[in-house]
Amino acid sequence: MGSSIAVAVLADDPITEEGAIVRLASYEEIAPRSLDCRTADVLLVLANEVTGTMLTRVERVGRECARNGRRLPVVLVANEFPEHSMLRAIGLGLVSLLHRRNSSFDAVVRAVVAAAPGRAKPGDGVQQRLISQIHALRDNALVPHGLNVAGLVAREVEVLGLLADGLNTKEVAEKIGRSERTVKSVIHDLVARHNLRNRTHAVAFALRTGVL
């Protein structure tokens, strides 16, 4: 099969992480390590429930591990995966999703091998095909126009993020170095474009679609 695949492992807790590394080390195909991602090929995430906090950790690790502007492919093994987290996870590099209770270490290793750059991609699973289609939509139709999967541009995401942090429009304007009128215009445009009721609804929309 050639050289083993370097896998950075991120888990809910240290015990799970260390146990997974020990178990996965018995497979010749991969070389697991605890978030030593300087030479990692794949990021393996083990979680009971995929929460915003966990995805933020994945995002941070992904930034640290990124090479040549490319995020590490992410294999996620979890029991609970809220639908609203899917888009954000895909944006962070998700290429394969496995249900933790129903997946053996053999299945995890197969997913990791398939996710590694230069390897055959995950098989015929509906989830994997859907993930691939959303990746293609994002890369070919949205990113070239500065949009994300939720159809928001970077400035809109920035404004909504600050509103979600509790800032008012004046404080947002000061934070981003724009006029309050500009901030209100950004909010008005996205509210109208997505048929939302108000700025609170807009923040909820961004959270629900996984942008924030």
From TrEMBL:
InterPro entries assigned to the protein according to its UniProt record, in alphabetical order: Sig_transdc_resp-reg_C-effctor, Tscrpt_reg_LuxR_C
Pfam family, any one: GerE
Domain HTH luxR-type: 145-210
SMART domains the record matches: HTH_LUXR
Keyword NADP: no
Annotated SUPFAM superfamilies: C-terminal effector domain of the bipartite response regulators (SSF46894)
Keywords: DNA-binding, Transcription, Transcription regulation
Organism superkingdom: Bacteria
PROSITE patterns, A to Z: HTH_LUXR_2 (PS50043)
Protein name stated in the entry: LuxR C-terminal-related transcriptional regulator
